[in-house]
């Protein structure tokens, strides 16, 4: 019997529990014992782990977050201590659920001979080796739902609504969430924003029958200094708030525009996972267990369409993937 230690590294994302469930069920089928490690590598170092059986995972498919807990801690200086713990518990391979922090941990451990398989779990969907990561579909659904709700009050009060999303610097959440929710303009770190175009689009809408706008802005997007200086006290404002004040300054006198700001924050990260997140989590985790059974470690699992892929570890795993150019261009058809 092989023993696998499953743990989460980085932020939680909806669908991780589906992956844990799949790993345990497939592991039992292949005579592999799965140990759940609490709170990532911090839990491993404090000996907080237990064997997981079917009863432990029988009712977690629909639950958000992670039953194991997680942490942002990545072993670097004390990787040898992690290796000692892995050997102490007879763990033949780790199954790491995470995004770029998980990839970093996997590479660090590979360098000292600690086997692992990485399953991508991040709402940002910005890992270069996979089309989709666990949690992305749910986050996009939350953005879409928020825009649907804000649409009615924006239209009723003739306001510009600034909606801030997570996902920097890839731009995936803002772009796909904004496109599916009918945003009138989307600003991400994936390209240089055109503020002349933004003002012209809002102006054109107010001159016509659409006297409101929904503007989606990726959190922490870098703004040109000339835009910042248009707004008093910009040092204390978020990028989204600066954009709102800039719009107001340019258009309030002519159109009487008011703006409101909504930061979706952690609302994007929680809740019951969408169907696709459950499916890809189940697929990738089961495949990861099968790889470990065959001794195929030091690989990341990914998806290309509906097909599972296996990617050898390399430093390129740490690269982020910006949103697809065609999708970003597609949004402009609706401006």
From TrEMBL:
EC number: 2.7.1.11
Keyword Kinase belongs to the record: yes
Cellular component, GO annotation: 6-phosphofructokinase complex
Pfam families assigned: PFK (PF00365)
Signal peptide: none
InterPro entries for this protein: ATP_PFK, ATP_PFK_prok-type, Phosphofructokinase_dom, PKF_sf
Cofactor section: Mg(2+)
Residues covered by the Phosphofructokinase domain: 3-292
Keyword Lyase applies: no
Biological process according to GO: canonical glycolysis; fructose 1,6-bisphosphate metabolic process; fructose 6-phosphate metabolic process
Gene Ontology MF terms in the entry: 6-phosphofructokinase activity; AMP binding; ATP binding; fructose-6-phosphate binding; identical protein binding; metal ion binding; monosaccharide binding
Listed pathway(s): Carbohydrate degradation; glycolysis; D-glyceraldehyde 3-phosphate and glycerone phosphate from D-glucose: step 3/4
SUPFAM superfamilies in the record: Phosphofructokinase
Keywords: Cytoplasm, Glycolysis, Kinase, Magnesium, Metal-binding, Transferase
Annotated family: Belongs to the phosphofructokinase type A (PFKA) family.
Protein name as catalogued: 6-phosphofructokinase 1
């Amino acid at each position: 019997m092989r023993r696998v230690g499953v743990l989460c590294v980085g932020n939680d994302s909806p669908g991780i529990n589906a992956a844990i469930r799949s790993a345990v069920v497939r592991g039992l089928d292949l005579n592999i014992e799965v140990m759940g490690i609490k709170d990532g590598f911090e839990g491993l170092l404090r000996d907080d782990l237990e064997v997981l059986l079917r009863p432990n995972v029988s009712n977690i498919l629909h639950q958000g977050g992670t039953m194991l807990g997680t942490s942002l801690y990545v072993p670097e200086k004390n990787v040898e201590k992690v290796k000692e713990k892995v050997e102490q518990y007879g763990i033949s391979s780790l199954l790491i659920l995470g995004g770029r922090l998980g990839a970093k941990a996997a590479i660090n451990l590979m360098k000292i001979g600690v086997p692992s398989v990485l399953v991508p779990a991040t709402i940002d969907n910005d890992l270069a080796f996979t089309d989709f990561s666990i949690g992305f579909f749910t986050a996009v659904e939350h953005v879409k739902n928020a825009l649907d709700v804000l649409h009615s009050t924006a239209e009723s009060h003739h306001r510009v609504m600034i909606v801030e999303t997570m996902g920097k610097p890839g731009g995936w959440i803002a772009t796909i969430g904004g496109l599916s929710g009918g945003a009138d303009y989307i600003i991400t770190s994936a390209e240089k924003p055109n503020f002349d175009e933004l003002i012209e689009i809002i102006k054109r809408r107010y001159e016509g029958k659409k006297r409101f706008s929904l503007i989606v802005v990726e959190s922490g997007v870098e703004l040109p200094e000339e835009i910042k200086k248009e707004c008093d006290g910009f040092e204390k404002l978020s990028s989204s708030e600066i954009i709102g004040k800039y719009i107001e300054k340019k258009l309030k006198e002519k159109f009487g525009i008011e703006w409101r700001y909504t930061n979706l924050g952690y609302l994007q990260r929680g809740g019951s996972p969408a169907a696709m997140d459950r499916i890809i989590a189940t697929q990738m985790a089961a495949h990861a267990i099968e790889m470990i059974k065959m001794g195929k470690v030091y690989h990341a699992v990914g998806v290309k369409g509906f097909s599972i892929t296996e990617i050898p570890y390399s430093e390129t795993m740490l690269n982020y993937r910006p949103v697809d150019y065609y999708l970003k261009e597609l949004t402009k058809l609706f401006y």
